[in-house]
Amino acid sequence: MIPLHIAHLTKRYGNRLAVDDLSLDVSRGTVFGLLGRNGAGKSSTIACVLGLIAKTSGEIALFGEPLQPRTFDRIAYVPEINCLDGWMTTHQHVEFRRRCFSRFDRTLMSELIERFEIEPGRKVGKLSKGQRQAVALALAFAQRPELMILDEPASGLDPVMQRRLLDTIVSAAADGVTVLFSSHQIGHAEQAAERIGIIDSGRLALEADVDDLRAKRFLVEAVFEDGRIEQHYANGDVTIVEAQLRARSPVTVTRRTMNLEQIFLTTISETKERQA
Amino acid sequence: MIYREYLVMRKAVAWFAAIVLTMMLIVPAARDGVAVSFNNAIGFADITNGAAWLAAIFASIFGVALGNGSREAARVLWVLPTARWQLALQVIAVDLAGATVAFACVFAFFPAVAWLRLGESLHGTLHANDVAMALVMVYATYGWSALVGMLGRRMAYGGIIALPLLMIWMIFALSQIPVATILRPLTIANPFAVYNAGLHAMSPLQWLGTAWATPVLVTIAVVTCGLAVALWQRAQVIH
Fold first, then answer.
1. Chain A: nearest CA to B140, how far in angstroms?
2. Complex ipTM more than 0.90, yes or no
3. What proportion of chain A, given as a percentage, has pLDDT over 70?
4. Across the interface, do B79 and A71 touch by the CB < 8 Å criterion?
């Protein structure tokens, strides 16, 4: 059963279209990075998936059925804004989750407390922003969910903690956990995601495997005698683009693989051009 | 959810008990009040009444839990694997238990402080029906606070305004102005007015009858809590 299926999801806030006919499938054990600029519609998509806000239209199925309260026993969610009660200690949060989620793993939680260097006896409100985020993430992982939905999970974490988080995500996926995370930091998707979706202005502009993108997308650069440099983006058969450039007798033609950031920026600019 | 609300209530009751005890021991007016009352033979009825009003204040403050739980800042509660109406009932059950403990605290502190300060014991008889009426008045106040909190859930702690509103409503109903007489039947939904009518035979709301006060208060509590739960459920996308 596919953990997450979204078909033609649309969400409007009054006249503003936040999510526009978005369709997406996330298969089991996949780390899916939902990328987009601020306000692109990532958080609205996640909020619709989790039933935090009502969708305008479309269909969402989690594990093959519409969302119900009991489905949350299989899902862990970490919101973008930390919603943990600041007056509770980490120990109390652990106890709270243990009572709510049937698969909550205290042993794993203890390991995560060590890994994320959390002070379990302190009130969450007294912890630093990064530590609060670490507590939220540790609690989510300790639920032993089948699907994790993380909205900007690395926000507030220092580089060391970000690395540990990404390692933990990859390790969870290796154990069969499906992870959907949103981010506007391309590096995180590059390090952890197997598949990405780029949202722009509420529309899914691109959805593909990260390895496929790297293998098929190139930047071809030609340097001409008069010093002009032309860069062309090639999606798919790069030899056609190279042949077209060579026909104009350049001094050199160089083929470069694109990193995810370049792919992201190209996709966003292409979308803008199409809209224009 | 029960555990989280239990933590809230445990802390709240501890603070409430500490504040009430401090007031009884330190505040001159309260101290004199106890002394004067004792000189005039304070009875269990006075203690029940005092405990009822203080616990009603406590209940009206914590009736905001549902309204606050509907706000975006409480997203963690929206992803719990429990039916939404069950979550709401769990919150209400724990809060009402907390209000009962708060009531019992005041009830215990009055004679304890009086005995410590004055070395006197209480007079009169403890009537179970008085205690029951006082307690359900506390629950009905909680219900109104929960309902107002849900209606005004865009505002954090919006339910707190229920207590002053109920007070103003009761004072208005007890007044002698002509409009108050016409609108007086509506006060059957006001727990303070109904409780007052139950206590005082000379009350303008006596038409309710003392025997009816407790069932009416129970009805107010059930209806307001029920409406608050319904609104809470409606505020959620999934149920």
1. 28
2. no
3. 100
4. no
